[in-house]
Amino acid sequence: MHSTGTTPGAVAARTVGASKVYGRGDAAIHALDDVTVDVAASEFTAVMGPSGSGKSTLVHCMAALDTPTSGSVYIGDTEISTLDDEGLTRLRRDQVGFVFQEYNLIPTLTGKENILLPMDIAGRKPDREWYDTVVDAVGIRDRLAHRPAEMSGGQQQRIACARALMGRPSIVFADEPTGNLDSVAGAAILAFLRRSVTDFGQTVVMVTHDPIAASYTDRVIFLRDGKIVGELRSPTTQLVMERMAALQPRNPVDV
Ligand SMILES: Nc1ncnc2c1ncn2[C@@H]1O[C@H](COP(=O)(O)OP(=O)(O)OP(=O)(O)O)[C@@H](O)[C@H]1O
């Protein structure tokens, strides 16, 4: 069976006392407030919480797209802050995949070229068999010669998912990957992310607002005001809805 670069049971990424502060003094916003969390390899983890609770900030810091003001972030055993620019570029390129809400495909390239672009840039030779496996798993073979403008949002996001997995990264981060999609197209993306974990051993961390999306995962981490306030294993839509309701301010006085 094909597998990605993760070892089951290992920690794929971790933050230790990570804080992110925007602004100073009375105007300071603690987007992350002393967050210590592990993400297990070969698991599908959701990050949830009210708007502004720090979900994107956490995932961007874990993916080395952003840096915490204090504390540490590890991808595998590597503490990100110890890397120089070249090391950071290599880590982002070789170990991290990212799926954005807005797909972020290159408009002038075909689907196939978009999928292979990160490997081209890295000078890595794509594994033909793995390419076929990923393309078939996302079900996008009939759109490979098309450009993004000729694809639906769901098709573009499938290409983006294939691109994220193509280099067999240690970890894939997805920030609201179904946020722009209808429920059918969204379900296809979620089924693919689930399958990439179950069948290929990929590690996936997904920010979502959607309790149905969260029910595809193995574990939900809940954030509020930049802090981890709980987690749920084997989440169901109903249980996630109940937890989310408990996290919302009950009335404007609580805000
Ligand atoms: N560049 C920035 N400058 C100042 N404040 C910021 C910046 N980025 C984020 N914030 C603030 O940090 C907090 C956390 O933002 P973040 O985007 O991580 O939250 P989120 O949970 O992902 O929100 P949403 O669900 O609305 O996308 C918010 O209060 C936000 O306004």
UniProtKB/TrEMBL annotation:
Keywords: ATP-binding, Nucleotide-binding, Transport. GO terms for molecular function: ATP binding. It holds the Pfam family ABC_tran. SUPFAM superfamilies: P-loop containing nucleoside triphosphate hydrolases. Residues 13-250 form the ABC transporter domain. The keyword tRNA-binding does not apply. SMART domains: AAA. The keyword Nucleotide-binding applies. PANTHER family: ABC TRANSPORTER RELATED, IMPORT ATP-BINDING PROTEIN. This is ABC transporter ATP-binding protein. It comes from Aeromicrobium wangtongii. The lineage of its organism: Bacteria, Bacillati, Actinomycetota, Actinomycetes, Propionibacteriales.
